[in-house]
């Protein structure tokens, strides 16, 4: 009986230390990053729907949020990418700019070790590009209706 109690205590200690260590590594979503997700997600949805309708206004809104965050948090290239996205006249140009925006946001999520379980990195091997979604059901913004379901969830934030 004594041996099993000791084993149980050791297990509890190991489990507690492991839980604490993983909590110390994972981080919540920084407020500045959280603020840009609604327009970013809206643009991804529009591109998956083969639409430019909301792209300009959402890219402009996201640029304003990025600029309000001040220097240092977002990459200095992100506002320029968002201007390109807001001025895109066709889906191909919008999707190229969206890829750059996505790459920068994914890098920020990784840099800040975000682990909310609410965001999913999806990767399309055909487009050789990734994006972030708020659910696991693939809606490919790079190919839209031509290949809407192409891609896999490759990471969770």
Let me know the number of strands.
3
Low-confidence stretches: 11-24
Q: SSE order in H/E notation? A: HHHHHEEE
Query: How much strand content do the residues show?
Result: 5-15%
Strand order of the largest sheet: 2-1-3
* C-alpha Rg (nearest Å): 20 Å
Describe the largest sheet. 3 strands, antiparallel
Topology:
Blueprint (H helix, E strand, L loop, with lengths): L1 H24 L5 H18 L6 H14 L9 H9 L4 H21 L8 E5 L4 E5 L18 E5 L1
Antiparallel strand pairs: 1-2, 1-3
What does this structure look like?
The model is unreliable at 11-24 (pLDDT under 50). 27% of the residues are buried. This protein has helices at 2-25, 31-48, 55-68, 78-86, 91-111; strands at 120-124, 129-133, 152-156. The protein contains five helices and three strands, in the order αααααβββ. The chain has one domain. The radius of gyration is 20 Å and the shape is globular.
Give a quick rundown of the structure.
The chain contains 5 helices and 3 strands, in the order αααααβββ.
Task: For the structure shown, list the relevant keywords.
mainly alpha, 10% strand
């Amino acid at each position: 009986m004594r041996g099993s109690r000791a084993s149980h205590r050791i297990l509890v200690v190991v489990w507690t230390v492991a839980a604490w260590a993983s909590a110390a590594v994972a981080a919540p979503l920084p407020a500045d990053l959280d603020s840009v997700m609604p327009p970013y997600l809206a643009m991804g949805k529009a591109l998956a729907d083969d639409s430019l309708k909301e792209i300009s206004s959402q890219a402009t809104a996201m640029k304003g949020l990025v600029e309000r965050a001040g220097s240092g948090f977002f990459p200095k290239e992100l506002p320029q990418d968002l201007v390109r996205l807001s001025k895109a006249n066709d889906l191909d140009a919008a999707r190229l700019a969206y890829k750059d925006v996505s790459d920068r946001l994914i890098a920020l999520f990784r840099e800040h070790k975000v682990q909310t379980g609410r965001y999913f990195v999806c990767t399309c091997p055909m487009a050789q590009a990734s994006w972030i979604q708020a659910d696991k059901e693939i809606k490919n913004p790079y190919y839209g209706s031509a290949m809407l379901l192409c891609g896999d969830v490759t990471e969770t934030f």
